[in-house]
Design brief:
Main location: cytoplasm
Number of helices: 5
Radius of gyration: 39 Å
Shape: elongated
Family: Belongs to the RRF family.
Strand content: 15-25%
Keywords: Cytoplasm, Protein biosynthesis
Organism: Volvox africanus
GO molecular function, one term: ribosomal large subunit binding
Order of helices and strands: EEHEEEHEEEEHEEHH
Distance between the termini: 151 Å
Number of strands: 11
Length: about 270
């Protein structure tokens, strides 16, 4: 007798496979420190991870305090500080402030009489105009008819006496001549003693300018100290600011020599 087995059927069905797989961010601990996926970190954090993975300073692991890397064409210090931008801004600010110091000294030099007619000697003279101190050059037109004479034509003729009084009370050392319509200032010949006094004024203005420039340098150095720059970059910035200071001090010395020669020239 033969036995015929009935064919067996399998009732198992394959589970459906989802086309979209979702991976959730996970964390794991290494030596007690949690590390999250690098994709979720910002630029500064990624840099810290790389530094730690490479062993940081000395290759033994830890934070490299003066670590610097190149990112997007600029030099960036640990913590996301743009070293090049900070240095450029600091030098630009110092340069602008030192240039202002130079301009102040130059304006002061213009007010020193040298024996030749120069309208700039009137810049600091203030006229009492209806109780309000007003710059003389706003009260009238100043012209130079010849090398030894200044002419002042007031916009308001009634202010002639006020302008004359202001000139007499100033320290320019010139006696005004009022003809009822205009005021004439004739540059008197200066004595050697007077020239020496003016040369001393030039020297004092120059020294005041140098002090102002050095104060700008000192302030720039203090600002640099407040930023955590790498040691080498901080030293480079200080050297650049010192060179800038030296250049402006030299410009002041050159200006002083030129003005002194002009004052002492007979």
């Amino acid at each position: 007798m033969s036995i015929v087995r009935a064919p067996q059927t399998c009732s198992l069905q394959a589970a459906p496979v989802h086309k979209t797989l979702v991976f959730r961010a996970c964390s794991f601990r290494t030596s007690g420190r949690a590390v999250v996926p690098i994709e979720q970190r910002d630029a500064a954090s990624r840099m810290s991870v790389v530094l730690f993975a490479k062993g940081g300073k000395g290759g033994k692991g830890g934070k490299a305090e003066t670590a610097v890397k190149e990112e997007k064409g600029g030099k960036v210090a640990a913590g996301g500080i743009d070293v090049q931008k900070i240095a450029a801004d600091a030098k630009k600010d110092a340069d602008e402030r030192m240039r202002k110091c130079l301009n102040v000294v130059a304006e002061g030099f213009n007010t020193i009489r040298t024996g030749r007619a120069n309208p700039a000697i009137l810049d600091k003279i203030m006229v009492d105009y209806f109780g309000a101190p007003t710059p003389l050059k706003q009260m009238g037109a100043v012209t130079v008819p010849d090398a030894q004479t200044l002419m002042i034509a007031p916009f308001d003729r009634s202010t002639l006496r006020d302008i004359e009084r202001a000139i007499q009370e100033s320290d320019i050392g010139i006696n005004p001549n009022n003809d009822g319509e205009r005021i004439r200032l004739v540059m008197p010949p200066m004595t050697q003693e007077r020239r020496k006094e003016l040369a001393k004024q030039v020297s004092k203005m120059t020294e005041d300018g140098k002090v102002a420039v050095r104060n700008v340098r000192k302030d720039a150095m203090k600002k640099a100290e407040k930023v955590e720059l790498p040691k080498d970059d901080k030293k480079a910035l200080e050297d650049d600011i010192q060179k800038l200071t030296d250049s402006y001090v030299k410009k002041l010395d050159d200006m002083s020599k030129t003005k002194t020669d002009e004052v002492m020239k007979l």
